[in-house]
Amino acid sequence: MKKIYAVYNGSFSNLKDIKISPLSRAYTFSDSVYEVIPFYNFSPIAFKLHMKRLQNSCDALGISISIDTISDEINLLIKDSKLENGYVYYQISRGVDTLRSHMYEESLDEETFGYAVEHNFDSNTLKVSLCEDVRWQRCDIKSTSLLGNVLSMNQAKKNGCSEVIMHKANLITEGGASNIFFATDNCIYTPSLANNILPGITRELLIEEIRNLGLNFEEGNYSVEELSNAKSIWLTSSTKGLAQVVEVVNLQTNLIENHKLFLECERIFNNKYLS
Fold it and tell me: Is residue 74 a contact partner of residue 44, using CB atoms and an 8 Å limit?
C-alpha cells in the first residue's frame, strides 16, 4: 500500500500504523464530525471557510477544540505529504469511552485524526438516481453519521450510478455527497439551506462567482417535477468540483449536455480555484 501521511491526536505517521480504540465514540456512536479540505498547487482551497464549518460542527455537538492547532496539523499534512493536488480528510470525535455508553463523560478528551491523499480535479460526468432522503434531521452538521447516505449511494451503485439526488416531501434536497444546481434556458437554481442541507463550501464559492458575474440565479424550494424540466443539472463538492449530470435513471428529463450555463459556471469556478 502506498504510504499515506496521517495524524492521530497530534502524532504524525503512516496511515497504516495508526491504531484507534474500538471504544472511540466515532466508532460506537458516530459521535464525531469531519471536514474534507481540497488543495491545489500545494495550497488549500477556501481554507478559512472549511475551518469555520468544522468549528460550527464541533460547536453543534458541544465538542471543544483548538481550531488553530487543527489548522496547523492540516497545513502540515499538506506540506509534508508533498502532494501537489489532493485533499485532507480530518475527523474529530468526542473521545474514547471507558465503556460504551450513550451518556458521555464531560471529562473526555477529544480525539483527532486526519490524512492527506492525492486527487485530481478533472471534470467528470455523472449518471445518478433519484431517491428519498432518509437521513437524520441535522444535515447542516458535517457528521460522520452517514448511514442514510451510504444506503442510498450503494443502491445507486447497484443501478450503475455514481451518485444520487435526494428529495424529501417531493422537494429536492441535495446529492449523497454533494450539493445540487440545475438550470433552465436562462436561470440557475439551487435548493435553499433552509431545506436542511449541508452548507457546502463549493456551493458557497460557486454562488459567489455566479452573483459576481451577474447571471440569473435563485435559491428556493424546488420540486422533483421542476427538476425534471431542467436543461442542465450538476453536483458540487470539494472533491467533485462541478460534475455534470448526464442521466437521471429513474426520472424523465431532457438534459442538454454541456449546456451554456453549466459551461459558464465551470469556467468561472475553475479559473478562480483550479488554475
Answer: yes
**What pTM, to 2 d.p., does this model score?**
0.95
Cα–Cα distance for residue pair 206/265, rounded to 1 Å: 7
Which CATH fold topology does 5-118 show? Answer: D-amino Acid Aminotransferase; Chain A, domain 1 (3.30.470)
Question: Looking at domain 125-273, what is its CATH homologous superfamily?
Answer: D-amino Acid Aminotransferase, subunit A, domain 2 (3.20.10.10)
**In sequence order, what DSSP letters do the residues of 197-210 get, joined into one string?**
----HHHHHHHHHH
Kindly give, in sequence order, each residue whose CB lies less than 8 Å from that of residue 187, ignoring residues fewer than 6 positions away: 216, 217, 218
Closest CA to 238 of 204, 196, 189: 204
- pLDDT tens-digit profile of 79-125? 999 999 999 999 999 999 999 999 999 999 999 999 999 999 998 99
Contact between residue 8 and residue 112 where contact means Cβ atoms under 8 Å apart: yes
